[in-house]
Amino acid sequence: MLYNELSMHHRYDLSSPAFEAAFSFLRRSDLAELAAGEYPVCPGVTAYVQRYTTSPAEALDFETHNKYFDIQYVVAGLEAIGVIPRRCLSEQTPYDSARDIQYWHEPEFAGSVVLYPGDYAVLPPEMAHKPRISLGEDRPVRKVVIKVPAVPR
Predict the structure, then answer these.
(1) What dotted CATH number matches 6-29+36-149?
(2) What is the DSSP string of 114-125?
(3) What is the rounded CA–CA span in Å between residue 139 and residue 134?
(4) What is the pTM of this model?
(5) Mean pLDDT along residues 130-139
(6) Taking residues 83-90, what's their average pLDDT?
């Protein structure tokens, strides 16, 4: 799934070597055994193996990144990710350049996608997202988030 505004379709090359390296990492047969932590994929691309328990949507915030795409891949477990164009939100916190993150106030309406094991979402900088949402009950999740530089063509 790639979710973005049509006006941005020409902005990024999703077949770049950085994206190819990211998806090659996700095809590793040992993802389920990797310890939580940070893994270099190729220059400029980093994978973060995460283990956590999902939370109710009300306890979470929408976030965006200016410098990177997020590829969020569920290895085990089940979660929803809220999605909405950044332009539809009002700022909750100023952009933190060192961490490449900004948080946003909850909108009146937003969409969501459910990720099952083996599913991924590609989230560009223009798309706010709220990961880790529980579905019915809080559940353990093992996920890999890969940060791919958002380099315009």
Answers:
(1) 2.60.120.370
(2) EE-TT-EEEE-T
(3) 7
(4) 0.93
(5) 97
(6) 96
